[in-house]
Amino acid sequence: MKLRVLIFMMVLAAMGPGRDAPPPDPDSVVQRNPARLPPVSRQPSAADDVVTPLALPAPPLFEASAVEPQQFLWEARPVVVFADTPEDPAFVEQIEALTGDGRALLARDVVIVTDSDPAANSIWRQQLRPRGFSLVLLDKDGQVKIRRPTPWDAREIGRAIDRLPLRRQESDRGNVLR
After folding, report:
1. Which residues are 71's β-sheet partners?
2. Taking the complete model, does pTM exceed 0.90, yes or no?
3. Per-residue pLDDT tens digits for 155-173
4. Which of 9, 13, 17, 72 has the most neighbouring CB atoms within 10 Å?
């Protein structure tokens, strides 16, 4: 019985003051993190309203006519983006998605290869034979792993790469073979 009363008293004490107590005086409350508060002596200026965008890293971007698939064997994972014209809305959307925030792609050794000129008949077109807009992901061993007829964002591509066996081996080793 004494134990129950003791536990009850401890729980009651842990609940703090009752709701009937007046709120604390603002001047007597100690600020927990004064670094979050703006300095009192500093007046806001017009420069405070200007927001500068952060420069986010993007994976290297290559034109298909300037590089060959053999250049990337065992070094990088090419994401090849095909289109019939550079003005293709899906092509533009895909390039913006890949270059917008490429930190996840950089960590996975991704390079972007673009081919928007079917008349040039690059080696990439000869080997991968796309029709219209196409996104093709090659692994470091040069094998085609994923083909998509619609744009993907960098996050989806990163997830797809993480499911690849070669990427899992890299993750297990901690990328020590670089």
Report:
1. none
2. no
3. 999 999 999 988 888 877 7
4. 72
